[in-house]
Structures are given as structure tokens and as C-alpha cells.
Design a protein that fits this description.
Elements (H helix, E strand, L loop, with lengths): L7 H10 L6 H13 L6 E2 L9 E3 L4 E6 L18 H24 L3 E6 L6 H14 L2
Length: 139
């Protein structure tokens, strides 16, 4: 029997049934970088606006590791879906707007906000240096 592609309604039903588990793999990679470079004092998912992936509560530094697809990475935009384009463009626009709003809320509360793109996790030394610099400049 030949392979049949799912129709748009079938695909929509399938996608709606999938529940995300967060960005577990990127968070694990980021935590590994912090540990490897002996950066301590961080906590995961503090109850702050936007629920930062990592936070240094004593120094008020919040870190988000943004997935390239979901947060509209300018470098990785070629990965856009081919179907329902209008929906995805609007979804990504809302995500970017929410990211800006959350960053402003945290800044207003005296927090430093760092955002790293998922694709940038390959450059571990640069990430560690940026985090360390933010922690020392904030003390």
C-alpha cells in the first residue's frame, strides 16, 4: 500500500495532541556548559516573569535559551513551515513580542537578562565568558 500524506485537518489534530516537554535538550546542554566552566549559584525555572530557564537569584541575572524555531532566530529563519504560513508568522511574532515584554519586566525589577540562541550553544567558551562577565559586572 503506498504511503499517504496526512491531510491538513489530520495534521492539525496530530499536532494539537503533541504536548511539549519544554526545551529540555537545550537546557541540559546549557547546564553542562555552566558546570564545565565552574559557574555556580544558578537555579532553574524561578517564578519570575517569563520563567527564565536559568537564574542567579542573588545577583539578579536571568538567562533564557531561546529555540531558533520558536523565537524566530534571524539566522535560522529558513526553517519556516511551508504550510499554514500566516499562522506560523503570527505565532512567531507573538513569541518575539512576549520575549521583549518579559525582558522589559525583568529589567524594571533590576534584573540583567541574557538571551542565547539555541544554535549558539556550540560555542561553549563564548557563552561561559558572557555569563561570567554579566555575573561579575553585576556584583
Amino acid at each position: 500500500m503506498p504511503f499517504k500524506f496526512a491531510t491538513t485537518p489530520q495534521r492539525s489534530k496530530n499536532m494539537a495532541a503533541i504536548r511539549g516537554a519544554g526545551n529540555v535538550t537545550t537546557e541540559l546542554r546549557f547546564a553542562k556548559i555552566l558546570r564545565k566552566h565552574h559557574i555556580s549559584g544558578w537555579r532553574k525555572h524561578l517564578d519570575l516573569p517569563g520563567k527564565p530557564d536559568f537564574a542567579f537569584p542573588k545577583l539578579k541575572v536571568a538567562i533564557f535559551v531561546d529555540g531558533c524555531f520558536w523565537h524566530f532566530c534571524p539566522r535560522c529563519t529558513k526553517k519556516n513551515p511551508k504550510q499554514n504560513v500566516k499562522y506560523w508568522i503570527e505565532k512567531k511574532r507573538r513569541n518575539k513580542s512576549r520575549d521583549r515584554k518579559v525582558s522589559h519586566q525583568l529589567h524594571a525589577k533590576g534584573w540583567i537578562v541574557l538571551r542565547f540562541w539555541e544554535h549558539a550553544l556550540v560555542n561553549e567558551p563564548a557563552i561561559a565568558e558572557r555569563v561570567k562577565r554579566s555575573l561579575t559586572n553585576h556584583t
